[in-house]
Design brief:
This protein is an alpha+beta fold. The chain is 24% helix and 36% strand. The protein has 2 domains: 232 residues, 3-Layer(aba) Sandwich (Rossmann fold); 126 residues, OB fold (Dihydrolipoamide Acetyltransferase, E2P) (Beta Barrel). It has 10 helices and 21 strands. One of its GO terms (molecular function) is ABC-type ferric iron transporter activity.
Length: 365
């Protein structure tokens, strides 16, 4: 049974339409990340699910029960939903113990044992219980906010950009810790974020939002590797777009040579998308000496190399043959491509390289 179902939900503030008919299903015990740029409507959707906003139209169901149907809504405090805001929203005058206790039912608020269990769930030492929020780091405050939300034993947990204020290293460790905690507790979770990497690494399902509408919903690997539109493709990462011609099922001919594509790709002229890490750049002397494809490999030259630590981002200019130029006469075939490669094997600036592709390219409408 689906834990959360959103059907045809709309919301406007004055003459501004914020949500234009949202349909979303989150299965029991799973995690969904709603990702989009600032102002696209993702936080408004989260607030409607939480009960802080009322939809203009549409239905929200939780566990098979309607909690919002247009203006008819179940009050937020009766929905059994946990909510963690971006800043944690802890009570500054209360200790950690008192903040966590606030989330417990009245009959359980005297149980220090339960507070200890909740702090342990979010990997906080019991010694923090007597501290106030201003004595904690940002990451510790977010863990307390999560413990307070878990204290209610919610059917659904809503996370509104909870890691934004943390530095990069702490962000990565916190989201991994929070994801593990919620998974172990079996809590259905919806995360709102504008961080693509966060969405892809945190969730079982990703929903990309643009201007109040969802462009694509599905497993993170599917959305990253097979986006259905250019906005989704570019929002989730860097792309390389190339002119192509599909004359045989499963293969597209492009300036990089023959490239595998999904078997259901329509025949004819099109444009295909690759991720920069799918293109392998090999110095031509190495390529020819090792038997790497030579006749179909594209001649190219490295213009720039940006060192990023583990990997490097190359800017490579294609130098296609006259045959390739003639084949794509109406398209530029000598453009600059971005190629991401492991730093220890990254070719030098000025190196002549041959290019070949890993995996499939996809047609993007």
């Amino acid at each position: 049974m689906s834990s959360l179902v959103v059907r045809s939900v709309t919301k406007s503030f004055g003459v501004v339409e914020v949500l234009g008919g949202i349909d979303l299903t989150v299965t029991q015990g799973s995690t969904t990340a709603i990702v989009g740029s600032s102002g696209c409507g993702k936080t408004t959707l989260l607030r409607i699910v939480a009960g802080f906003e009322v939809p203009d139209a549409g239905v929200v169901e939780l566990g098979g029960t309607e909690i919002a149907s247009g203006a008819a809504v179940v009050p937020a405090h009766k929905r059994g939903i946990g909510y963690v805001a971006q800043d944690g929203a802890l009570f500054p005058h209360l200790t950690v113990r008192q903040n966590v206790m606030f989330g417990l039912p009245l009959r359980a608020r005297r149980s220090t044992k339960r507070v200890g269990e909740l702090l342990e769930m979010v990997s906080l030492d019991p010694e923090f219980a007597s501290r106030r929020p201003d004595e904690l780091s940002g990451g510790q405050q977010q863990r307390v906010a999560l413990a307070r939300a878990l204290a209610r034993e919610p059917r659904l947990m809503l996370l509104d950009e909870p890691f934004t204020a943390l530095d990069a290293g702490l962000r990565a460790s916190m989201r991994k810790s929070v994801a593990a905690t919620l998974r172990e507790a079996g809590v259905t979770t919806v995360l709102v974020t504008h961080d693509q990497e966060e969405a892809l690494s945190f969730a079982d399902q990703v929903a990309v939002m643009k201007s109040g509408r969802l462009t694509q919903v599905g497993p993170p690997q599917e959305l990253y590797a097979r986006p259905t539109d250019l906005f989704t493709a570019t929002f989730l990462g860097d792309v390389v777009m190339l002119p192509a011609r599909v004359s045989t099922a499963g293969t597209a001919d492009c300036p990089l040579g023959p490239v595998p594509v999904p078997a259901d790709t329509p025949l004819g002229d099109t444009r295909i998308m690759l991720r920069p890490e799918q293109i392998v750049a090999t110095p031509t002397s190495t390529a020819h000496g090792s038997g790497t494809p030579g006749s179909d490999a594209t001649n190219a030259v490295v213009l720039e190399r940006e060192f990023l630590g583990h990997d490097s981002l190359l800017q490579i200019r294609l130098t296609p043959s006259d045959e390739v130029r003639a084949r794509y006469r109406s398209e530029r075939t000598d453009g600059v491509l971005s190629v991401r490669t492991v730093s220890v094997v990254a070719p030098e600036v000025g190196a002549d390289v041959s290019l070949h592709v890993l995996g499939e390219a996809v047609r993007v409408g």
